[in-house]
Amino acid sequence: MKKLFLKSFLISSFSFILGTFIIFFVVTETSFIVYGYFQGYNSILLNGMIEITLILLKICIISGISLGLIFSFGTLIPHYFALKRLKYSDIDNYNVHQVREVEIPYSYIDAYNFCLKSLDMFYKSKIVCQDIESGYIKAKAMLRKSPFGENIEFNLTKIDDLHTKIKIQSKPPYKDPIVGIDYGKNLENVEAILEYISTNKTALMG
Prior knowledge:
With 206 residues, the protein is α+β, with helices and mostly antiparallel strands. It contains 4 helices and 5 strands, in the order ααβαββββα. Strands 1-5-4-3-2 form a 5-stranded antiparallel beta sheet, with helices on one face. The two termini are 41 Å apart.
């Protein structure tokens, strides 16, 4: 969580500093240029431009750091408590890209069908790509918590005739430009699928 906070703070602070400096710089320097055009440029005006620019830079750094802290705390605290409310709260993993692996006592074909059937748990799930030979399934789940949905992937590996290894992944369909925060949606996805595959032995009969 500390690394996630540090990443969020550094990226958001830099973004706020850069954004506010560009806005203030454009406004003030445009004013100086217009004034200089009509009144004439001189050393006093140029020195004033430099002083104003340095003052603006200091203001932007202070405000950017402050806004970065507010943004980081404001987004990560709800993310942290959302994860802790899940029944998987003992898992110390706050990434939006969640991965789990499990070995189940089913044939390769049965395990593949099991993965397909587990997608029925999700709201408006849609299979994007599937290849039974390579053991790959990719689906998009339109979750009620997320307007963009999540990408769910399965990679199956045959161990023997009665055992199959399954790698389950859940991640956002986009890369967050600031910091990865999903309020536990992807953790909930992979753990729900893992529990379904591990415990629901009658699923293939339905």
